[in-house]
């Protein structure tokens, strides 16, 4: 299978699908008329003159919001391209042998996935968010240098084209080869995607391949663009903010963009210099990184002096978004604002002193290694300060179920796992063992995927009304966010498990013993890909067909005194353009002032009512679980009589917890789980399932958990016997759900809280 044609075809299908969604949404957009009918369909005429006017407008604009949208669109395209690389890699790893793509193709995918995501996806998207919202947050009219801002963006498309010219040339050559003699296409066919790894270590990066030169030039050009953008952000924050905004009340996202831009100023020029040195080695006979000259280790020092601060260049804006968005959905002011700012600055400073922990296995002086180990462990402290402050912000807050909330809380959980594993890798003996394994891949991606893209999605949902004047499909957003968190956790914790088993990374083949976990990781990656497509559909469809915003406070921020300047700007715009009057909340609850005149409850006073409620719910849930388990047992016994369920599978259940394979012990575990674990999960999640917390919700819950039972107790039934087995599993779980939910409702257990807008 030709990798280039497959990749370009997938990319084209996604792009065409996006266009069709937008065109169809515009076609069916018919607003209801006052008499109850619908307005006549208005066909959108878009001729050559309109296309030319749109092209001139978007290529010459210096408006910070429009440039921000261009950055975001460019980063999204790059993310789709790099994401397709990742999906193709994970598809390749479904089998231990290289029988889907070749080893060469796998190495090409591995190389360009990393560079595309790091350089052309993450930073441009954060720069786009910064361009759009930072001037609004600080009260500036525009960025400090509007024209330079436009130049910074328009350097990125050619840099991406240069970096990925290999696949463009390969596809062009393959298409032209149908009608043109192959000899005429020798120049195009000479280009190949580099297969040197995204770190571009010499001597691999010194191998002859003309596309590597263009890759280095593209990366150098993107570094210039990034540096231009960083200079603009620094100047804007320092000189363009409103007189009422000082350093003490500068918003947390602007603080993070300021610190991020400062890191960029120091490290990207160094990367550009190293890239030029490598170009000279490749084309002019210098020996900066050749064995007879400076040596390959010199490249590693220069690359990682950029590479590890780069991790924080893409991480700090995500933490800024977390610190800005999370308080809005928990009804509490950000806890420890000053300490989060100090931790951001501390991370920036320490980031310049940790690069050699990537080189612990290169044989550098043990005393030097020890100093970098100490610094690498120390940088965990300011990161932990952020995590504890985020958790404290949620404490005793009014946490609302929304897509940004799910993404924020999921990001915190994934970041904790990724961060703690990073502390382990900072310890030299641990790193020596696991440095070349999937443990590093899992740790790295729990940070890169676990918080960075998740916070981008959270920002897209949070600011979607400002960007489009419409509201997205909230139910789809909640489902998509949950799917994204689950897919990320499944994929990258599985990779960490592979690392614990010491499976080497970067290899296109692996021993068959690891195939099970590799399949699980691939399934998780497909879940991520599916959730991203859902997000893309929701954004495109809702931008045209979403419900128009009728208030500038869709998140009820005024009620907790968190109506920030960008929403004030949006409110003024709605009033000016659509005549929507400013809204006022019925009640204002300060998000940080404790109740006056009341003595704060002691820890015992806080825990006692919670413990009483938990004990009551757990007791009722246990009774309901026991009733449901007995009903389910009756259905399973009928399945045993009919020969479609093997009773001995309960004996296997006992072995999962280290007990002997005994039927009685297995059934006892089954009853214990049905009486404790599943009822508690039902009580926790039931209020978010469709229907009330009675029979309907119980059926939904039972249907979901039936899939796990069907897999765990399957004993190889074929054909119609398998169909009957699945039918009885479903009937048994429905019996369990009815017994559980019915008993809880009868005994007066926890009731479902009404959702927003229910009953309207």
From TrEMBL:
Pfam families: COX1, DUF6789. It is a multi-pass membrane protein. It comes from the Archaea. It is found in: Membrane. GO terms for biological process: aerobic respiration; electron transport coupled proton transport; respiratory electron transport chain. The chain crosses the membrane at residues 6-25, 67-84, 115-138, 212-239, 259-280, 312-330, 339-358, 370-389, 401-428, 440-464, 476-501, 513-537, 618-645, 665-686, 698-716, 722-747. SUPFAM superfamilies: Cytochrome c oxidase subunit I-like. Residues 52-555 form the Cytochrome oxidase subunit I profile domain. GO terms for molecular function: cytochrome-c oxidase activity; heme binding. GO terms for cellular component: membrane. InterPro entries: Cyt_c_oxase-like_su1_dom, Cyt_c_oxase-like_su1_sf, Cyt_C_Oxase_1, Cyt_c_Oxase_su1_BS, DUF6789. Keywords: Electron transport, Heme, Iron, Membrane, Metal-binding, Respiratory chain, Transmembrane, Transmembrane helix, Transport. Belongs to the heme-copper respiratory oxidase family. PANTHER family: CYTOCHROME C OXIDASE SUBUNIT 1. This is Cytochrome C oxidase subunit I. It comes from Natrinema pallidum.
